[in-house]
Amino acid sequence: MKVTGMKHKSIKYIVISLLNCFVITTGAFSAAFYFSEVGSKASSYFFGAGSGAAAVMVFNTVKLAVMLKNPKYRKEQEAAQKDERLISIRNRSMAVSFYTMIICAAVASFIFAAKGDLEKAGHFSGFLCVSTAVYFIAYIILSHKE
Description:
The protein is 87% helix and 0% strand. The protein has helices at residues 9-37, 42-69, 71-82, 84-115, 118-143.
């Protein structure tokens, strides 16, 4: 069995999910180490978030390895990915959740800027920029024809 490039949509989704989990895990652990240096209790929150993202990353890595080695399982996953009902529901759900997250971050950024807390406003606007960049990178990857 030879898999060249990323010809399968389900493999693309898992790779994108792995990249997102890696970014989240790295950010959470970085924040946890930062807060542990300043003596904050927030470090345990970020260690928990990082551990959860790392667990998802390990699960997706195992799933990807199984898909690459087992053609029957890969075909089952691809059939599920092509189910029209699930595709429509999944796309609408992702779009609504993404836009809601973006709007909430923008509103929070404006609120904190109006209150004069520019540090928190900068964090929310930075989150807004990173989320938009991840969206565009995922769009570029997924828009390539197979």
